[in-house]
From TrEMBL:
GO terms for molecular function: cysteine-type deubiquitinase activity. It comes from Scleropages formosus (Asian bonytongue). Keywords: Hydrolase, Protease, Thiol protease, Ubl conjugation pathway. Residues 80-106, 375-406, 780-934 are annotated as: Disordered. Residues 863-879 have a biased composition (Low complexity). It catalyses: Thiol-dependent hydrolysis of ester, thioester, amide, peptide and isopeptide bonds formed by the C-terminal Gly of ubiquitin (a 76-residue protein attached to proteins as an intracellular targeting signal). The gene is USP47. Residues 81-96, 850-860 have a biased composition (Basic and acidic residues). This is Ubiquitin carboxyl-terminal hydrolase 47.
C-alpha cells in the first residue's frame, strides 16, 4: 500500500486460487486493507516495470488471475495506489484490519527502503507513478524524490531543513536576481527547496533544481557518495556563495569547534601546541590491529583524546632540552560547537584481502551526551594563537562510500524490509552555559555494504518531540526503540551503517519561522511556488484528459507519408480535432480545410477502418473510446481534391489493393483500392472489381496473395472472402482476357509465371568498372564472340527466323558502337539491347515487363519471410525453379481452391536441383568453376533486365552504372554471366562486391548461392580482376617491418592454390611486387610467415604445401618479411625469436634483432643473446614481452612490469610458453645501473612515453575505474580544458 506513509513499508499477503477473478481480487484487497472497493487502483509492482508507467489492472475484468498475467505458485507483487489523485476511502476511521487494536508503539515496523526482488543498489524508485499527484504524508512532512542514487543528498537536506537555526538563517538571506542566475545559485535553490518542504501539498518533491545548481549533470545522480563528505563540500560551497553577507559566518557559528593538538616533553614539561578547528569529530569504531570494537560513543571519544607516548625511535626533539626526549602527544577539546556532529568511521580497509570493508560492530549512543569529561577547562581559557588550521577542510576521518555496486552483500538478500541493525549517531546537544550536555537530534543511517547501499535519516522534531524516519519519498513516525536498532551488531550481521550527523542544541532552542513570520521575499517566493504548483496541477489535469494518438497523412504534393502525434482534449469535437491536425501537418496553402477529414486507420495493415460521417460535433473522447495511454489504432488525415468526394468507410469492411495484370504486355499495373465485405462471395467480389477497373467479370481470374509470394486462385464463385483468407488489408491480382491461358493449370499458366517473377524480382544498382583504352579492343572482340555464341545457340534451339534476324541487326549495332574511339553510354545501351535480344530469342518469358510498382508493393515484395525459406536457397543450395517439368494437376470435383493454390514451396521442391559442391565446402575453397572451367551457375531461364543510368559522385563527374531487375533466385554464377556483355570481359575476369552501410564492400565469391540475401536497391560494385578457380584462395599480403612505428603494411592481393608450395607462391608474388609495390626482391631474400592480427607467427618454409602443411582459408592474410641475409630457417624444429635489448643507463630500447634457435633451451637463448650483445652470460637477464606485437612498454615501467629471468630451463613452459616463431624477448645487463633522472626529466620522459605508446595503440598504464570525486561547482558546471584530449 503506497498511499500512506505508515503502510508503505508493510505488505499485505493474499493466497488466492488461480481461478479467482480480477474483480474478486479487488474485493479481497479492499477487505484486507479496510478500503472501500473502487476507491483505489491495483498496479503491477514487478521490478521490470518500475522504471516505466505501471500497468493498472482492470477492476471490472472477470478473467481469472491465471489468464491475467499472474504466475501460479510464485510471488506476484502489486501496488495499491491512489485513484485520480485521491487517497483510498477508508471503511472506518481505523487504518484497517491489519492495524486495528495496535498503536504506533506496538507495531512491528521496518524503517528504511523496502527492498524489491531483483533490485539492488541504492536507487529506490519504490513506485513508478508520479509522487506529485499524491497528497502529503499524514505526518505533515514532505519527502524528497530519489533521482537514482541521491539518497545521501536527501538525508542531509532533510537534516538541515529540520535544523531551526540553519533554516531560519537561510530564509533571512535574500537573493538578488540581477547579480546571479537563479539556476546556478545554490543558496537560492536550497531556499526554494526548504519553502516547498514546508508549504507543499505533495508527498515528495524533486531535488533536480538543487543538483543543477551544484553544476551536476544526470550522471551524478548515479554516483553515490559519503554523506559526511557531501556535508563538508556543500558547507564550503555555501560559505563561498555567502561571502560579504550576513550569513558569511553561519557555518562556523553553528558547527565549528576548537581543539588543541599538543606534544609535551616528559623530561622538562615543555609543551608545543597549536589550535585547530573542526566541523565534525571522526570516531574510530575498531582501533587498528584490535579485534574488539569500542562499545559506545563515550569510549570512542575517550580514545580520541587519549594521548600516545613518543619513545624509542619515535622520540620528540625538545626545543628546551635541545635533544630527543620521550614525549606525550594528543588532542584536547577546547570548545564545542553549537551543533555537535559525530561521525563513526564504519568504513575500513582490510589489508589481508586488500578490499574495503564495513564494520558492523555494535556501538551505542545515549539520548543525552555529557561532553564535560572530554574538555580541557584550563586550555579553554588560554589565549589562542594565530597558527590555527581548519581541520574541517583536512578531510580527516571522512568516510568515502564506494560507487554503487550492482549487488548487496549476501546477507542482505534474504531481508524484505530494512531494519536498522547498525548505525552510528550524530548528536544534537542541549548546552546550557553551566553544562556541556547535548541532546540527540539526528541519526544518519547507511544500510548496505562497503560497495554501496542506501542512506536515510532519523530526525527528532523540536516542535513536538517526535522522531521521524525521512526515507526519500516516505516520511513516517518512529520510536526510541527504532533508534536503538541503529546501534549495529545484529545477530544477522547485515551490513548496515550509520554515518552520524548529529546536531546539538541548547535547551532554549530556536523556533522555526512559520508562514506568518516569513520575511517578505520568502512570502513572495511562497506565493510564486504556490502558483507554479497550481499551474502544474492544472496541467496534470489537462494531461489526464488529453488523448494522445499517432497521426498520419499522405502529403498531397510530396506523396510521402508524414507522421506526428495528435494531442487533443477529450472534450474537443471531431471538427476541432481536424483543424488541429490540419495545422499540425502544415497543410495550409496546399489543401483547403474542408477537403480534409480524420479517419480511423491501421498503419501496420495499411487499413482504413472507418470514417466518421455525421459525427463532426462528437467529442474525441467518445470517438476514440476514452483517454488511454496507447491506442490499438491510428488516425489518418485524409485529403481530397475539391472536385472529388470522400468515400465512406464502414466498420467491417476490408481494404483490397487490386493490381491489373496484362498477359499481352506482360505488365502489372499500380494498385486500385477497393473496399469489400468479408461475407461477400467471390462472384460478388468480381463484380465489385469490374466496376472499379472496367474489366469483364465473366472472364476474370482473381489471385489473392495471402502472404509474401503465396498465391491463391479464387475460382469457387459461392465461397466467401473470409473463407478464402481475406483479412483487414489484402492484395489481389486480376486478369481478364480471352486467351487460352485460362485452360492451363494455374501453376503452369503464364499468369502464374508473371506473378512469380513479380514477387521474386529485386532491383539492384550495379556500378561498372572504369573502361581503360587498353581493354576496349578485348571487350569489343569479346562482345562479337558472345553475339556469335548467342546466335548459334538460338539456331541450335530452333528459334524462329525473325528472332535471329533481330539478333543480327543488334549485333551490327554493337559493332558500330564498338568501333568508336570513346566508350560512352551508347555502348552500354547497345550491350543492353544485345542482352534483351538474346533473351528474347532464347526465352520469350524473359521479356521486360513495364510494370509499375507502388510503395506498398515494394514493401510487400522486397522482404523475405520465413515462409519463403524453402524456395530461397540457403548457403548450401541453389533453387532452379523455372526449368522444372510439371504436368497439369488433375482437379477432382468438389475440391476447393486449396487444391490449386500456387504452393510455390511444393513447386520448388519438385524442381529443386542441388548444385553445391560438397567437396568444395568441406575444403573451404572459394572456387567458382568446375574442372572443365565451365561456370556451375548455369542460366536457369530466370528473369534479368538491365538499363543504364549515371551516378554522380561528389566531384560532379558521372559514373556508368546499371539498374538491374533480376530474379533473386538466380545464382551468382548466372548473374555474372548476364553481366558479361556490360563489363566486356568473361565472368572469370571480374569480381562482384556487395556494398553495405558506410560504403563497406565485401566480395561475393560463392557462385552456387542465389541472390536471396539481396534486397531492393542494394548496391553492387564490379571490379576487374581474375576470379577464383577451384582450389584457389584470395590472399592479402602484408609487409612485416619489425622496427617501423607501423610494423604492418599492406602490399598486394594475390591468389594461392591448393597444392602449391610456398616457393611457388613466392615466385608468383615477385612480378606483383615489382609492378605494384616497386619492390625488386630475389626469391631467397624474403620469407612468408603466419599473420594473426598484427602478430608475426610461424615462418613458412619453401617446401611447405598449402592445404597440406599450411591451413589456408578465404580472405587469408600473410606476412612478407624482407631478409638482410639468406634464410636461416631450414627446419620446423628451429625457433625464430625477436629480441630487443633494454639499456637502463640510457633509458632506451634498442632495435629488434632476430635470433634463430635450434631448440627450446633457455641456455641456448641466453648464449645467443650474449653473443649478439657482448653481455657476459652470468649478467644477462631476459623477459618475455606482453601483449600484441611489438609488445611496446614504457621505459619507466619495463624494469618493474616484466618478469625478468624466469627460473625455467625450456622456453615452452610457464611462464614463457614460447613454442612458435615470432615471440618477443627483452634482455638486459643486470649490472647496468639505471640513469638517474630529476623530477623534471622524469615528467618530461613520462609525457614522451605516453605520447609514443598512445600512437602505437599500447596501454600507457593500468588503473581500475576510479570513484568520481564529489564536487560542487560554483560557476554552474565543470569546464573542460580545451587543450585536454
Amino acid at each position: 500500500d503506497t498511499t500512506n506513509a505508515k503502510t508503505v513499508n508493510e505488505r499485505l499477503t493474499l493466497n488466492l486460487p488461480a481461478s479467482t477473478t480480477v474483480s474478486k481480487l479487488f474485493e479481497d484487497v479492499a477487505l484486507k486493507a479496510g478500503y472501500v472497493n473502487g476507491s483505489f487502483h491495483l498496479a503491477w509492482g514487478n521490478m521490470t516495470d518500475m522504471v516505466r508507467t505501471p500497468v493498472v489492472l482492470d477492476q471490472s475484468s472477470e478473467m481469472p488471475l491465471s489468464d491475467s498475467g499472474f504466475e501460479p505458485g510464485k510471488k506476484n507483487f502489486l501496488q495499491l495506489t491512489d485513484k485520480d489523485g485521491e487517497q483510498p476511502q477508508s471503511v472506518s476511521e481505523r487504518r484497517g484490519p491489519y492495524n486495528s487494536g495496535l498503536d504506533d508503539n506496538t507495531q512491528d515496523r521496518f524503517i528504511g527502503p523496502l527492498p524489491r526482488d531483483g533490485i539492488v543498489g541504492c536507487s529506490n524508485d519504490y513506485s513508478s507513478y508520479s509522487y506529485a499527484s499524491i497528497l502529503k504524508s499524514e505526518t505533515g512532512y514532505v519527502g524528497l524524490v530519489n533521482q537514482a542514487m541521491t539518497c545521501y543528498l536527501n538525508s542531509l537536506l532533510q537534516t538541515l531543513f529540520m535544523t531551526p537555526e540553519f533554516r531560519n538563517a537561510l530564509y533571512n538571506w535574500e537573493f538578488e536576481e540581477g547579480e546571479e542566475d537563479p539556476v546556478t545559485s545554490i543558496p537560492y535553490q536550497l531556499q526554494r527547496l526548504f519553502v516547498l518542504l514546508q508549504t507543499s501539498k505533495k508527498r515528495a518533491i524533486e531535488t533536480t533544481d538543487v543538483t543543477r545548481s551544484f553544476g551536476w549533470d544526470s550522471s551524478e545522480a548515479w554516483q553515490q557518495h559519503d554523506v559526511q563528505e557531501l556535508c563538508r563540500v556543500m558547507f564550503d560551497a555555501l560559505e563561498q556563495k555567502w561571502k560579504q553577507t550576513e550569513q558569511a559566518d553561519l557555518i562556523n557559528q553553528l558547527y565549528q569547534g576548537k581543539l588543541k593538538d599538543y606534544v609535551r616533553c616528559l623530561e622538562c614539561g615543555y609543551e608545543s601546541w597549536r589550535i585547530d578547528t573542526y566541523l565534525d569529530i571522526p570516531l574510530v569504531i575498531r582501533p587498528y590491529g584490535a579485534s574488539q570494537a569500542f562499545g559506545s560513543v563515550e569510549e570512542a571519544l575517550q580514545a580520541f583524546i587519549q594521548p600516545e607516548t613518543l619513545d624509542g625511535p619515535n622520540q620528540y626533539f625538545c626545543e628546551r632540552c635541545k635533544k630527543k626526549c620521550d614525549a606525550r602527544k594528543g588532542l584536547r577539546f577546547l570548545h564545542f560547537p553549537y551543533l555537535l556532529t559525530l561521525q563513526l568511521k564504519r568504513f575500513d580497509f582490510d589489508y589481508t584481502t586488500m578490499h574495503r570493508i564495513k564494520l558492523n560492530d555494535r556501538m551505542t549512543f545515549p539520548e543525552e551526551l555529557d561532553m564535560s569529561p572530554f574538555i580541557d577547562v584550563e586550555d579553554e581559557k588560554s589565549p589562542q594563537t594565530e597558527s590555527c588550521t581548519d581541520s574541517g577542510a583536512e578531510n580527516e576521518g571522512s568516510c568515502h562510500s564506494d560507487q554503487m555496486s550492482n549487488d548487496f552483500s549476501t546477507d542482505d538478500a534474504v531481508d524484505e524490509g530494512i531494519c536498522l541493525d547498525s548505525a552510528s549517531s550524530t548528536e544534537r546537544v542541549l548546552k546550557p552555559k553551566s553544562l556541556l550536555t547535548f541532546e540527540l537530534f539526528s541519526v544518519m543511517v547507511h544500510s548496505g555494504s562497503a560497495a554501496g547501499g542506501h542512506y536515510y535519516a532519523c530526525i527528532k522534531s523540536f516542535s513536538d518531540g517526535q522522531w521521524y524516519s525521512f526515507n526519500d519519498q516516505h516520511v513516517s513516525k518512529i520510536t526510541q526503540e527504532d533508534i536503538r536498532k541503529t546501534y549495529g551488531g545484529s545477530s544477522g550481521s547485515r551490513g548496515y551503517y550509520s554515518s552520524a550527523f548529529a546536531s546539538g542544541c541548547p535547551f532554549l532552542i530556536a523556533e522555526f519561522l512559520d508562514a506568518e513570520n516569513f520575511p517578505e521575499h520568502i512570502k513572495r517566493l511562497v506565493q510564486k511556488e504556490k502558483e507554479a504548483e497550481e499551474q502544474e496541477k492544472r496541467q496534470r489535469e489537462i494531461e489526464r484528459n488529453t488523448c494522445k494518438i499517432k497521426l498520419l497523412c499522405m502529403h498531397p504534393v510530396k506523396m510521402v507519408m508524414m507522421e506526428n502525434k495528435l494531442e487533443v482534449h477529450k472534450d474537443k469535437t471531431l471538427r476541432e480535432a481536424v483543424e488541429m491536425a490540419y495545422k499540425l501537418m502544415d497543410l495550409e496553402g496546399l489543401v483547403p480545410l474542408d477537403c480534409c477529414r480524420l479517419v480511423k486507420y491501421d498503419e501496420f495493415h495499411e487499413y482504413l477502418e472507418r470514417s466518421y460521417e455525421g459525427e463532426e460535433d462528437t467529442p474525441m473522447g467518445l470517438l476514440l473510446g476514452g483517454v488511454k495511454s496507447s491506442y490499438m489504432f491510428d488516425l489518418l488525415l485524409e485529403t481530397r481534391r475539391p472536385d472529388q468526394v470522400f468515400q465512406t468507410y464502414k466498420p467491417g469492411e476490408v481494404m483490397v489493393k487490386v493490381h491489373v495484370v496484362s498477359l499481352k504486355n506482360e505488365t502489372i499495373a499500380s494498385p486500385v483500392s477497393v473496399r469489400a465485405y468479408l461475407n461477400q462471395t467471390v462472384a460478388e467480389f468480381k463484380q465489385l472489381i469490374a466496376q472499379a477497373t472496367g474489366l469483364s467479370a465473366d472472364t476474370m481470374r482473381v489471385v489473392l496473395e495471402r502472404c509474401y509470394n503465396d498465391l491463391r486462385l479464387l475460382y469457387v464463385p459461392n465461397k466467401t472472402l473470409k473463407a478464402e483468407g481475406f483479412f483487414r488489408s489484402n492484395k489481389v491480382f486480376v486478369e481478364s482476357s480471352d486467351s487460352a491461358d485460362h485452360q492451363v493449370t494455374f501453376t503452369d499458366s503464364l499468369l502464374w509465371k508473371l506473378l512469380d517473377r513479380h514477387g521474386n524480382t529485386i532491383r539492384l544498382f550495379v556500378s561498372l568498372p572504369e573502361q581503360s583504352p587498353g581493354l576496349l579492343a578485348n571487350r569489343t572482340s569479346y562482345q562479337k564472340q558472345q553475339e556469335q555464341q548467342d546466335l548459334g545457340s538460338s539456331n541450335s534451339d530452333s528459334q524462329n527466323t525473325s528472332d535471329v534476324e533481330h539478333a543480327d541487326s543488334l549485333s551490327q549495332e554493337v559493332s558500330t558502337a564498338s568501333s568508336a574511339s570513346a566508350v560512352d553510354n551508347r555502348e552500354l545501351e547497345n550491350r543492353i539491347q544485345i542482352v534483351g535480344g538474346s533473351g528474347t530469342a532464347s526465352d520469350p518469358e524473359n521479356q521486360l515487363p513495364s510494370e509499375e510498382r507502388s510503395d506498398s508493393d515494394v514493401n510487400n515484395d522486397r522482404s523475405t519471410s520465413s515462409m519463403d525459406s524453402d524456395i530461397l536457397s540457403s548457403s548450401h543450395s541453389s533453387d532452379t525453379l523455372c526449368n522444372a517439368d510439371s504436368g497439369p494437376i488433375p482437379l477432382a470435383n468438389g475440391l476447393d481452391s486449396h487444391s490449386i493454390t500456387s504452393s510455390r514451396r511444393s513447386k520448388a521442391h519438385e524442381a529443386r536441383k542441388e548444385t553445391w559442391d560438397t567437396a568444395e565446402e568441406d575444403s573451404g575453397t572459394d572456387s567458382e568453376y568446375d574442372d572443365s572451367g565451365k561456370s556451375k551457375g548455369e542460366a536457369q531461364y530466370l528473369y534479368f533486365r538491365a538499363e543504364p543510368y549515371c551516378q554522380e559522385d561528389g566531384s560532379g563527374d558521372s559514373h556508368k552504372c546499371l539498374l538491374v531487375h533480376v530474379d533473386k533466385r538466380i545464382t551468382l554464377a548466372t548473374f555474372k554471366q548476364k553481366l558479361e556483355p556490360f563489363v566486356g570481359v568473361p565472368s572469370s575476369q571480374f569480381k562482384v562486391f556487395r556494398v553495405y552501410a558506410n560504403n563497406q564492400e565485401f566480395e561475393s565469391v560463392r557462385l552456387n548461392e542465389t541472390l536471396s540475401s539481396f534486397s531492393d536497391d542494394n548496391k553492387i560494385t564490379i571490379r576487374l580482376g581474375r576470379a577464383l578457380k577451384k582450389g584457389e584462395y584470395r590472399v592479402k599480403v602484408y609487409q612485416l617491418l619489425v622496427n617501423d612505428p607501423e610494423p604492418c603494411k599492406f602490399l598486394v592481393d594475390a591468389v594461392f592454390a591448393k597444392g602449391m608450395t610456398v616457393r611457388q607462391s613466392k615466385e608468383e608474388l615477385l612480378p606483383l611486387l615489382r609492378e605494384q609495390c616497386k619492390l625488386d626482391l630475389s626469391i631467397d631474400r624474403f620469407r612468408l610467415r603466419k599473420k594473426t592480427w598484427k602478430n608475426p607467427g610461424t615462418v613458412f618454409l619453401d617446401y611447405h604445401v598449402y592445404e597440406e602443411d599450411i591451413n589456408i582459408s578465404s580472405n587469408w592474410e600473410v606476412f612478407l618479411e624482407v631478409l638482410d641475409e639468406p634464410e636461416k630457417m631450414k627446419s620446423m624444429s628451429q625457433l625464430a625469436v625477436l629480441t630487443r635489448q633494454w639499456r637502463p643507463s640510457r633509458m632506451k630500447l634498442e632495435l629488434f634483432q632476430e635470433v634463430v634457435l635450434e631448440s627450446s633451451s633457455v641456455d641456448e637463448l641466453k648464449e645467443k643473446l650474449s653473443e649478439l650483445s657482448g653481455i657476459p652470460l652470468e649478467n644477462l637477464e631476459f623477459a618475455k614481452g606482453r601483449g600484441t606485437f611489438p609488445c611496446d612498454i614504457s621505459v619507466l615501467e619495463i624494469n618493474q612490469d616484466l618478469d625478468w629471468n624466469p627460473k625455467v630451463s625450456t622456453l615452452n613452459v610457464w611462464p614463457l610458453y614460447i613454442s612458435d616463431d615470432g615471440a618477443v624477448v627483452f634482455y638486459r645487463d643486470k649490472t647496468e645501473e639505471p640513469m638517474e633522472l630529476s623530477e623534471e626529466e622524469r615528467n618530461e620522459l613520462m609525457k614522451k612515453e605516453s605520447s609514443r605508446l598512445l600512437k602505437t595503440g599500447q596501454r600507457v598504464n593500468y588503473s581500475p575505474r576510479k570513484e568520481k570525486a564529489l564536487k560542487i561547482y560554483l560557476d554552474g558546471g565543470p569546464t573542460k580544458d580545451p587543450g585536454q584530449d
